[in-house]
Structures are given as C-alpha cells and as structure tokens.
Specification:
globular, Jelly Rolls, mainly beta, binds calcium ion
Amino acid sequence: MKRVIGLMVLLALVLSGVAAAQEKLIDNFESVHGFTTENKAIISYNFDPEFVKEGVFSLKVVKEAGDQRSMVRLRNYHRNFISDLTAYNRLGFWVYFPDVSLLREDVALQMSFWLTSGSKINFPFPVTDFQNGWNYVKVDLTDPTKYFSRKDVDLIEFQVRTAEPDFEMVYYYDDIRFFNE
Ligand SMILES: [Ca+2]
C-alpha cells in the first residue's frame, strides 16, 4: 500500500510538472505595489514618455467624478519605505497636471505624513504653485511651523483636490525622493 501511495505521489508530481511546463507567464502587471488609494484615484504604471519625467515609468492617477479628493498613499510595506526620515530635510517629487484650472484654489495638493501614533502633519500647496505640465514639489520637512519628530512615519499621503467634485482628471507622479539641501 505504501508503495502504491508513493507511486501515486510520483505520478502527481510528474503531471504537475507537465502542467507547469505548458504555461509561461511573461508579465501579469498585477499591481502597483506599495501604494494604495482613497476617494477618487485609480493608479497604474505609465510608460508613455510624454508623461514620464525620469526613467521609463511614472505613476498614473485617474481621478473620476464624485469627490474633490484624490489620494495616493505610499505605504510602509513599499520596498523603499523608510519610517525614520531624520537623515533628510526635504521630500521632492514631480507631478504632472494637464490643466491646473481644474484644481482647487486654496489646496490643490496636500502632502500628509501620518505617524505611527495616528496623528498627521499636513503640507498644503495652493493652485498658484502649479502650472500646466510638470511641476516639481518640494516639502520642507524641517519647517518650524510644521514640526514633527520624523522618526516614526507610517504612511505618506499625496492628495490632489479638484475645484469641483465632478471634475475628472488624469495626472502623474514621478521621481519621489528624500534629500538634503
Ligand atoms: Ca520614473
């Protein structure tokens, strides 16, 4: 009996090997790993060079109608996430807006640093900071009016707001990095 079971296991292994040999995954583009969304944001990788600022890819965000807010969240399980930011005093990134007249006047973009304690620090940017096309956004992490310890960041939120909830927009992010200046 033991031997029969052994043969059956062997047969199963051989068959599964045959099945595995009959498929070959090239690329399933399963997700944009390490980012999540809130409110109106559908994210994907973009490789149309017109909407890439650096390298080959950028992050594409489709903001549908129904809400002013469109949030992309950089999560602590992203492969390059760091929770202790004290080695840096700036966060910088590129954002592409097709038409800044669609953005909300007082807070067109807001960066939020969520801490492990649950509190968050907001850095709002008015529409006057932006032009159509690519914009470089720089967050001063040492701004004394926004002081936070920067040792236990749990999530970094990129929030774009449109002037009206029903405004639809496709926009892009690229080259998010920490640095010193
Ligand atoms: Ca890129």
